[in-house]
């Protein structure tokens, strides 16, 4: 099945069968604008009250933001992107060793999103890695390229610290104790998706990933600095392009933070588009609640006499429901509204 990988075949003149989206579900790239007001937050600012307020505002309005001066070196970011591209350029027989279309497998190379269920495929290959605790998973990571384990391990450690720092700011922005969200989420799992989007002969007809929200708590995205691909649904009405900024990381709220905030914060719809001119790489790091964590709106955020927007559930229950669906179906949180 590894011959399904887009990174193992030559560039085509037209989309292969199974990748063309229906007419009503195409990216309409000409209608997408760039929003110059996307929140950009300097984490090195000495005014932490202002930083917390900026994060809070971004979470309520956009559901995502970009951060600079985040503490991860430019050198490491460049190494991560380089070794990721090097991996996808390995010979097909080398990549075949890691291929799997089993969603529950903790370390796997695959394509599209869920090739077992979907009827239309996405123009993407990806390497999925579990990253915490590192010592448990790193031995099974790719040994080729030679620097892969060392580079990605270093990045995973840095990203985790950044994520926990951001969760503290998010807690404070909600008017909760600084460690509230971290405590609720428990010993958080950490996953990574190294996404490879090859050049696409007909980018108007397909997606790298169709619109979706993230089922986890927080996503930290390292974008390709050369080419845009991430788009976000603004105000539920129109798509905006998120252009890469030098040494910035995109922070995306997942479904669990929307639930914990009682709907005040947004787990926003987003998608990945492709283009005919350039291949693109992105590295998404996910902080996820432990499976037994009980997720529900913080009591302090539910008004007297009001019912919470979402019922309580375990993350294990949520994650299973998420993966049992197609990626672009209704927001999975809708299945957990009220007292259902």
Distance between the termini: 40 Å
The quaternary structure here is: single chain
Radius of gyration: 19 Å
Q: Assess the beta-strand content as a share of residues.
A: 15-25%
Count the helices. How many? 8
Question: Which descriptors apply to this entry?
Answer:
five-stranded mixed sheet, 8 helices, 340 residues
Structure, explained:
It is a single chain. The strands form 3 sheets. Strands 2-3-11-8-13-6-5-4 form an 8-stranded mixed sheet. The protein has helices at 48-61, 74-88, 92-96, 134-137, 148-173, 180-185, 255-260, 315-323, and strands at residues 33-34, 40-42, 64-68, 108-111, 125-130, 189-197, 209-212, 218-222, 230-234, 238-241, 249-253, 270-272, 280-288, 294-295, 313-314. Helix 1 (48-61) crosses helix 5 (148-173). The protein is built from 8 helices and 15 strands. The chain has 340 residues and is of the alpha+beta class.
How does the SSE layout of this entry go?
Blueprint: E1 33-34, E2 40-42, H1 48-61, E3 64-68, H2 74-88, H3 92-96, E4 108-111, E5 125-130, H4 134-137, H5 148-173, H6 180-185, E6 189-197, E7 209-212, E8 218-222, E9 230-234, E10 238-241, E11 249-253, H7 255-260, E12 270-272, E13 280-288, E14 294-295, E15 313-314, H8 315-323
Parallel strand pairs: 1-10, 2-3
Antiparallel strand pairs: 3-11, 4-5, 5-6, 6-13, 7-12, 8-11, 8-13, 9-10, 9-12, 14-15
Short description:
The protein is of the alpha+beta class and 340 residues long.
